[in-house]
Every structure is written in C-alpha cells, then in structure tokens.
C-alpha cells in the first residue's frame, strides 16, 4: 500500500512529501548544518573513533552482542565539545542502538517530534 502524502512541515511550503521535508528544504537544512569536517568529524576524530572501536569491538548496550560500528558522545556535544576526544565520554554502539540513543537524548531529537 503506498504511503499517504503530507505537506512539507516547513511553514508555508505547499510541497507534498511521503516523509520528512521536501527536497528544497532538505538541501537548505543540510547547507546550514555544514559538512562533517566543519562539525569536527575530521582526521583527529577518525583516529579517536578507530581507537574506541578497537577497545570496544561489540556494542556496549546491555544485552547486545552486535559488532560496534559507531561511537557516541555521552555528553551529546560531539567532537568539538570540551570532552569530544575524552575516552571516558565515548561509547561504542551498533547502528540501531546509536540511532535510538541519539533520537532519545539529542535536544529536539527525532523521538520528541
């Protein structure tokens, strides 16, 4: 069954979408957000991430034995935060658990929309 279309959630936009924003407003949001490198996910972060995944090869969520593929900042501030590369502020997750945690914890996170 096809998904019902709805109006783009940006005020005043009449475009119909299956989910999220229309293409124009997605592009605008991505431009405001900046690139990964501009947000601090650079060479130094890739090195820190690799170190965490070596130390914790499986997801650190209780009861999960999946391979860890992502690294989460406990304080939610990312690599530019005051503890962005502090190993005590980082935890290894599988993709589903990291997505769930981000949706729940991030200010204005997806789970609260």
Strand order of the largest sheet: 1-2
H/E element string? EEHHEEH
Number of structurally distinct domains? 2
Distance between the first and last residues' Cα:
25 Å
β-strand number: 4
Overall average pLDDT: 90
Helix content: 25-40%
Structural classification = alpha+beta
Q: Mind sketching the topology for me?
A:
Elements: E1 6-7, E2 16-17, H1 23-33, H2 43-55, E3 70-73, E4 90-93, H3 95-105
Antiparallel strand pairs: 1-2, 3-4
Describe the structure.
The chain has three helices and four strands. It has a two-stranded antiparallel sheet with strand order 1-2. Strands 3-4 form a two-stranded antiparallel ribbon. The protein folds into two domains: 1-33, no CATH class; 43-112, no CATH class. It is α+β, with helices and mostly antiparallel strands and 113 residues long.
Spell out the key features of this protein.
about 110 residues, alpha+beta, 2 domains, two-stranded antiparallel ribbon, 4 strands, about 30% helix, globular
Nutshell version of this structure?
With 113 residues, the protein is of the alpha+beta class. The protein contains three helices and four strands, in the order ββααββα.
């Amino acid at each position: 069954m096809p998904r019902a279309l709805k109006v783009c959630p940006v005020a005043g936009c009449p475009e119909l979408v299956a989910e999220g924003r229309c293409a124009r407003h997605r592009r605008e949001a991505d431009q405001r957000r900046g690139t990964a490198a501009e947000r601090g996910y650079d060479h130094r972060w890739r090195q820190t991430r690799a170190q965490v995944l070596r130390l914790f090869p499986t997801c650190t969520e209780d009861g999960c034995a999946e391979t860890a593929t992502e690294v989460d900042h406990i304080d939610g501030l990312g690599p530019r935060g005051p503890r962005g590369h502090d190993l005590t502020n980082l935890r290894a997750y599988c993709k589903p658990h990291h997505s769930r945690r981000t949706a729940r914890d991030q200010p204005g996170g997806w789970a609260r929309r």
